[in-house]
Amino acid sequence: MPIAVSQLWDNLMLFLVVGVFIELAVSAIFSVRIIDDLLNTTMLRSVKNALVIIAAFGVCAKIDQLRFFYGTKIAVPESVHYVLSSLVLARMANLVHDFINYVRSRSKAV
pTM above 0.90? Predict the structure, then answer.
């Protein structure tokens, strides 16, 4: 069992790294000054989140090793594994986005 936990931790760290790249790629699209002012609207934030989810599904579809339970002995149906991995990857990208916004807001407050 310790091997499975270790592998899950490694997979989680891989998801975090790939999530950083997805967040940076999607944020680059929305970094234009005109769009940045509009990003405070709910609709544009929803579009950005949808792009992150689509990118996560695309990355998980192309990279077979990018599965959350890859290398462990945990048996999950392939479709559930794919959807779960994509959603975890999208959440990691959103976590990175939230962290960047937190650091940005703290630096403006000082």
Answer: no
Q: Report how far residue 5's alpha carbon sits from residue 57's, in angstroms, rounded to the nearest whole number.
A: 24
Residue type, 58: G
CA dist 91 to 37, 48, 52, 62, Å? Answer: 24, 13, 9, 18
3-state SS assignment for residue 63: coil
Give 52-103 pLDDT, tens digit per residue.
889 988 888 888 778 877 877 778 888 888 888 888 888 888 888 888 888 8
- Residues present in the chain in total: 110
Query: What's the rounded Cα separation, in Å, for the pair 76 and 81?
Result: 6
Nearest residue to 51 (alpha-carbon basis) of 29, 32, 31? 29
